[in-house]
Amino acid sequence: MTSSAWAAQTLADQETGTAFEHLIGSLRGLQDSVTSTRPPAEVALAIAAELRAVAHRLDEFGVGEADQLAGAQMDYPGRSQACVPVLDHTAQSADEVRGTLQLSRFHLGRNGAAHGGVIPLVFDEIFGRLAGTDRPRCRTAFLHVDYREITPIGRRLDFTGRVERVDGRKIFVTGSLADGDAVVAEADALFVVLREGQP
Ligand SMILES: CCCCCCCC(=O)SCCNC(=O)CCNC(=O)[C@H](O)C(C)(C)COP(=O)(O)OP(=O)(O)OC[C@H]1O[C@@H](n2cnc3c(N)ncnc32)[C@H](O)[C@@H]1OP(=O)(O)O
């Protein structure tokens, strides 16, 4: 069991946490449904009104960042964060991670290829969790991505991440994303451990 510097600042009771994760799962599904359909105007307008009503229903439960569950539930593969693709870790230590993820229509760029901006998002998530495992909180100073081939949506992809070197506050990491035998993207990044008082 590893501990993360990004561990939840807010722990919900299990019922609340699980229910919130269901809510995020439904939101992910909605993002895909909206992206992959072409409803007639009256249907689109009716659904838009329903979604505004849903959002309004949540208004009374607004909280500040320290109390939000989104992004803070580290026990769930997507940490209840709808912006970031769900990472299913199969191996995880403070030095190395492996796992799988699947991008969906919501992440589409064009012609079956994932949006180019999604790939660094994925690497930042993989690397950020890795760099913060059993270490103090750190932030991405740089993140360099090499796009080797298009990254397909709708297929299970393998990811890796590895801490190559730690030099004082600097943590250098590398990683890859593969579709079967084909490496579709590689990345390297620097994370810097935050000093006291740094946001
Ligand atoms: C579960 C959650 C997972 C998701 C995690 C997601 C993580 C993120 O995305 S964080 C958000 C994106 N990143 C940011 O917003 C960071 C913005 N930048 C900053 O806050 C600062 O520039 C920060 C903290 C990175 C470094 O600033 P600071 O603490 O003052 O460090 P500083 O003293 O300048 O540099 C420390 C060392 O790093 C090096 N360094 C800093 N930035 C860079 C860079 N871009 N390139 C190369 N080296 C760098 C410096 O040269 C220095 O090296 P040395 O010690 O050898 O002299």
Automatic annotation (TrEMBL):
Keyword Cytoplasm assigned:
yes
GO terms (molecular function) for this protein are: hydrolase activity
Any coiled-coil regions, as ranges: none
Name the chemical reaction catalysed here: octanoyl-CoA + H2O = octanoate + CoA + H(+); decanoyl-CoA + H2O = decanoate + CoA + H(+); (9Z)-octadecenoyl-CoA + H2O = (9Z)-octadecenoate + CoA + H(+); (5Z,8Z,11Z,14Z)-eicosatetraenoyl-CoA + H2O = (5Z,8Z,11Z,14Z)-eicosatetraenoate + CoA + H(+)
Top EC class per UniProt? hydrolase
What Gene Ontology terms for biological process does this UniProt record contain? fatty acid metabolic process
Q: What is its EC number?
A: 3.1.2.2
Query: What sequence ranges are listed for the domain Thioesterase?
Result: 111-181
Q: What is this protein called?
A: Acyl-coenzyme A thioesterase THEM4
Q: What is the lineage of its organism?
A: Bacteria, Bacillati, Actinomycetota, Actinomycetes, Mycobacteriales
